[in-house]
Amino acid sequence: MKELKVQPIKDGTVIDHITPGNALKVVKILGITEKQPDSIISIAMNVVGKRGKKDIVKIENRELDPKEVDKIALIAPNATINIIRNYEVAEKHRVSVPDEVVGIVKCPNPNCISNTREPIETKFIVKSRNPLKIKCYYCEREVEDISSQIM
Length: 151
Ligand code: CTP
Hints:
Helices cover 8% and strands 35% of the residues. It is mainly beta. It folds into two domains: 12-94, Alpha-Beta Plaits; 100-149, Aspartate carbamoyltransferase regulatory subunit, C-terminal domain (SH3 type barrels, Roll), CATH 2.30.30. The strands form two sheets. The protein has a five-stranded antiparallel β-sheet with strand order 2-3-1-4-5, covered by helices on one side. A three-stranded antiparallel β-sheet has the order 6-7-8, with no helix packed on it. β2 and β3 form a beta hairpin. The longest helix is centred in the N-terminal third of the chain and has 8 residues, at 23-30. Cytidine-5'-triphosphate (CTP) binds at residues 4, 8-9, 14, 16, 56, 58, 80, 82, 84, 87, 89. Cytidine-5'-triphosphate is lined by residues 4, 8-9, 14, 16, 56, 58, 80, 82, 84, 87, 89.
C-alpha cells in the first residue's frame, strides 16, 4: 500500500487536492506565515494520490474558516478543506469561487485606477467559473493569467 509522505495531524486544517505546483501560492494567499509566524505548516508537492498528482498544505492547531479559504479556489478549484479534530476529519468542504474577488488579484491594466496612487482595493466580477474568467470592476479588463496576478 502506498502511503503519503506527510504525517496525519491531530488538530488543524488540511487543504487537499491542490492543483499540482500551487501549494506555495496557497500558503502565500492565506497570509499565515505573516499573520501567525509560529504556525506549524507542512507542505507536500506533486504527491500521487488516488486521483493523480496533487499538492497538500497542513496547518496545525488552526481551523481555517471555509470562507477565508474561498480565495484558494482561484488557483486550486478542486481543493478540499478538511478540519481535523483529534485525528479525525470533522468537516470537509469544497472551495468555491466568490461572486466578487476583492483585494487579492492585481489588475493587469497599468492605467487602471486600482493601480494608481488612489487607495482603492482591487475588485473583479466573476464572469464565468469553468473556465474561470474575471473582469476588473473599474476598467473592465479581463485577467488572462489569474495566478500570476495574485497579490
Ligand atoms: N489528514 C491528516 N490528518 C488526519 C486526518 C486526515 O493530515 N488526522 C489528511 C489526509 O491525509 C488527507 C486529508 O486530510 O490528505 C483528508 O482526509 P480523508 O478525508 O481521510 O482522506 P480522503 O478520504 O482521501 O479524502 P478525499 O475523499 O477528500 O480525497
